[in-house]
Amino acid sequence: MDDHYLDGIAVSIADLLARDEEVLRVNEKSAVERQHAKGKLTARERIDLLVDPGSFTEFDRFARHRCTDFGMADNRPYGDGVVTGQATVDGRPICVFSQDFSILGGSLGEVFGEKILKIMDRALDIGCPIVGINDSGGARIQEGVTSLAYYAEIAMRNVAASGVVPQISLILGPCAGGAVYTPALTDFTVMVDRTAHMFVTGPDVVAAVTGERVSATDLGGAVVNSTVSGNAHYRAGDEHDAVDWVRTLLGYLPANNMDPVPTYRSTSGDEITLTDRALESLVPSDPDQSYDMRELVTALADDGEFLEVHEGFAPNMLCAFASIEGGTVGVVANQPRHLAGVIDIDASEKAARFIRFCDAFGIPLLTLADVPGYLPGVAQERAGIIRRGAKLLYAYAEATVPKVTVVVRKAYGGGYAVMGSKHLGADINLAWPSAEIAVMGAEGAVAVLHRRTLGEADEGDRDRLRQALVDDYRARTASPYLAAERGYVDRVIRPAATRIEVARALRSLRSKRKRLPARKHGNIPL
Ligand code: HXC
Fold first, then answer.
1. pLDDT of residue 406 exceeding 70
2. Does the CB atom of residue 139 touch ligand 1 within 6 A?
3. Is 178 close to ligand 1, i.e. is its CB under 6 Å away?
4. What's the rounded Cα separation, in Å, for the pair 310 and 318?
5. Mutation pick for ligand 1 pocket among 103, 141, 153 (CB with most ligand atoms within 8 Å)
């Protein structure tokens, strides 16, 4: 090889290194200054936190916008405000994009959009989760309609990927306007306290249009989005916490809808343990007293570990991922600690979406029922508990993954029917001996059935008579045995045997194959 050629190579390598230097040192230094001053990490630091060390392969590091309007020709930073690439988390592949607010406000223009589409397409091609880190001023104002077009293109990919690969959004800065809808289309959204905001219109527009004065935090901070609106599935204390949650979540999920769920070595055995025995005193003898359903989930899950999803939203319904005998299970449970575990609109929508996610990705469902029914009230009726409560029935009925249900205490009325009943396609239904499966609670039933008798009774006798009727009703109907007689409950089990019985049931269903008839798609009540 001649010297001239070698000189040429050396020059081109030096040129590459200079460009890398500009991106990785010069721009990153400025990003560190700008982001850290706001209490935020840079786009690259966030990726480093999320992925296995050394696993990140970047795409399009030198991509630059082509816009010449508004003085943009002189401001063409490499990367165009978003870092994209492939990596691994605990050795399993993911595709990731991380918006860089330090460059053009992380605003989305044509090239920025192209980069995100490319990485989403790659995730779909290789069948791996997509993690999107959002920190952006929204549509790039200088690029006009092109920016808007790319939001819609990303939404198209979100929908194409829905139910094919898991999609996770981290909101670690502003996310406003139509930009909120692409995270909203993903499966899980994590928001960080203080620095993250998510709203369709910000406080100034709200004030101008409706006259309401509200702070950005009260309008779209992590608290309100994770407790009231339900847009966020987890509220993180800081960015480290947010990324930790996502790493844990990824550990429970299959890479795509064709892969099996991840499996881990499990030490749970077939002998009744002390923790199992403690379940015999979990449910208080007074039917009106509550207990924490998380204790039951802890007892059933491998190593007592599980990941609650949407913990702060509709806490009367508990949705969580856990491992049982080493394989991921989606747990759906009423939480008697909140509103006695009643099903309201929020609980119904929360559980329905979780069930549909599990079903799409082949994750078996474990339902733990202790439910007094659907929530009565004018507000709920007017807000559409009929239409919105129907989503939960739809989701259960549609799900073809293995479905195991344990009735722990109450399963009354519509609550019985919807919470993983045999009639909605559950495969194995277990009940504790203390379970009360009935049309309604004993007090309510006696009030309806014996209204006249009680009305005609002497006032002094009325309470005693009512109690006798309640006891009689409870003894005759509010037990698991009427359901067991009909095969609606497959087995009545001791609470201490629950972990072993649930594991056995899930094991027996591993080869379950069920397909719904071909159709374009169903029409879930939205
Ligand atoms: C271009 C933008 C930008 C944008 C911010 N910047 N947003 N550039 N397009 N949308 C630039 C700023 O000019 C500034 O550049 C840098 O990013 C940092 O912005 P600051 O305002 O200094 O930051 P901060 O004070 O933290 O305020 C953040 C902010 C604010 C609240 C997000 O920047 C803001 O209100 N931006 C506009 C938000 C917006 O209305 N977006 C359009 C939403 S509609 P310099 O050069 O000074 O560093 C939308 C439609 C999507 O997104 C439709 C989908 C269907």
1. yes
2. yes
3. yes
4. 8
5. 141
Q: Contact at 8 Å (CB) between 164 and 256? A: yes
Ligand 1 neighbourhood includes 79 CB (under 6 angstroms): no
Query: Residue 1: pLDDT band by 50, 70, 90 thresholds?
Result: low
CATH architecture type of domain 274-440+479-508: Alpha-Beta Complex (3.90)
pLDDT tens per residue, range 305-342: 999 999 999 999 999 999 999 999 999 999 999 999 99
Q: pTM, whole model, 2 decimals?
A: 0.95
Q: State if residue 174 touches ligand 1 by the CB under 6 angstroms criterion.
A: yes
Residue among 228, 253, 224, 226 at smallest CA distance from 242 = 226
Cα separation, 240 vs 242, whole angstroms: 5
390 alpha carbon, distance to own chain's centre: 19
Please give the span between the terminal C-alpha atoms of the chain, in angstroms, as a whole number: 69
Cβ-proximal residues to 72 (8 Å cutoff; 6+ apart), any chain: 65, 142
Ligand 1 contact via 108 beta carbon (within 6 Å): no
Beta-bridged to residue 436, according to DSSP, are 410
Ligand 1 geometric centre to CA of 174 (Å) = 9
Q: What is the DSSP string of 476-520?
A: HTSSSHHHHHTTSSSEE--GGGHHHHHHHHHHHTTT----PPP-S
Separation CA 201–CA 366 (nearest Å): 39
Could you tell me whether strands 92-99 and 403-412 are parallel, antiparallel, or unpaired per DSSP bridges? Answer: unpaired
Q: Is 373 exposed, middle or buried (0-12, 13-18, 19+ CB in 10 A)?
A: buried
CATH T-level assignment (fold) for domain 41-252: 2-enoyl-CoA Hydratase; Chain A, domain 1 (3.90.226)
Residue nearest to atom 41 of ligand 1 (CA): 138
Q: Which atom of ligand 1 is nearest to the CA of 106?
A: 17
- CA nearest ligand 1 atom 44, residue: 177
Q: Determine the Cα–Cα distance for residues 110 and 114; give it in Å rounded to an integer.
A: 6
Query: Nearest CA to 437 among 464, 388, 389, 474?
Result: 474
Tokens, residue 138: 């929204």
Q: What's the chain's Rg over C-alpha atoms?
A: 27
Is the C-beta atom of 340 inside 6 A of ligand 1?
Answer: no
The domain segmentation of the chain, as residue ranges, is: 41-252, 274-440+479-508, 442-477
Query: What spacing in Å lies between the alpha carbon of 105 and ligand 1's midpoint?
Result: 5
Are domains 41-252 and 274-440+479-508 of this chain identical in fold? yes
d(CA 80, CA 103) in angstroms, rounded, equals: 7
Q: Over 90: is that where the pLDDT of 2 sits?
A: no
What spacing in Å lies between the alpha carbon of 123 and ligand 1's midpoint?
28
